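Pipeline run #58 for the internal structure catalog. This entry was flagged by the ingest filter as a single-chain record with no existing model, so it goes straight to prediction. Upstream metadata was stripped on purpose; only the residue string is passed forward. Reviewer on rotation: M.T. Logging verbosity set to normal.
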Amino acid sequence: MKSIYFDESGSTGQNLSDFAQPVFTIASTDISQATAEHLLSHFDRLSQKEVKYSKIKKTSIGQRLFLDFLNEPILHGGTTKVYAVHKPFMIVTKLIDIIHEWIMHEAGQDFYQHKAALATANVFATTYPVLVGTTRFNRLLMRFVEAVRTKEKPFLQRFFKEVHEMHDYIVKKHGSEFADFLLPIFAEERAQAKHILNATIDELDPIIPSFMVHAHHWSAISNEMVEVVSDDSSALERWKEVCLEFSDPAGGTVSAEYYGQRIEYPLKLQSFRFVDSAAEPCVRVADLIAGGLADSVTPIANRTIQSAYQKAIFSKLSEREILLGAMWPATDVTPEALDAEGEAKANPAQIASQFLKKVRDSKHTKSG
């Protein structure tokens, strides 16, 4: 059984709307322990008890050693992958999924055709900070996170109050047509926050959708079942059973395509093992890759300028095809720009939900 080692960077737990850390990354690798120890030996001269990217990046010699580390031939897209999440944008996509999608569904529209949900999120994330200012926009996202996480009436009221104030501000400054994206939230308020209340407490955690991107990748290229090995402080620990359900053959065999994205179930996750990263060199290598990407793209998320060192990291990860993808805002809103022309016969969220339902129905039948 193949072991895939994971680690993450930029996790702020329940404090998702900590905009001081706008990027979350998760890396994975299937290298051997001997290879990992060789890679980590690049940093021996730093005399660190545990090699961590957060320490390495602080000195010029650490930065030089890290770029040397990325030059190692074994680090390439066949052995190592990393995925990034722009956390404020992820909050926007969840707001669209939780609130806007049901409005479209009740109107008889499939919000995932032509990637309409993604286009809506892109418009919202790229235009509203300009219309209302970054501070007001981030406050709205923070109020939404509080509402979803707590489900408490005062926080729900604060969220809806923020939306009303933003709507009034936009209408006064720019005209009512620019405030249309907020109207579905008013419908959610009239529905007594039904869909926010139904959202799970971990609905907004970036770890699971990010991990599942990796899980699909390794399942697609592996000829055998895989063991997931991760740091024991990872949020994956409380989600492992759900992740394993996606590998249960009771869900049937699914193979579909969504605008070039291949969707196949069951996955090939055999088990999870949680370890102390200080004692597991392969996990420490994943930490370095995740930390390097997070450091490299944080200036982009903050709309500031990357240093030459940060540009060099991104260049290396791109050249080696280590980048697995990103959940990141863009100005692309047309089907052509999103590579979403024509009608999609598959809905990724629906396929995953149906697969899990079959697995859980099977378990219920057996237990009964």
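catalog note: DSSP finds 14 helices and eight strands in the chain.
catalog note: The radius of gyration is 22 Å.
status: ready for reviewer M.T.
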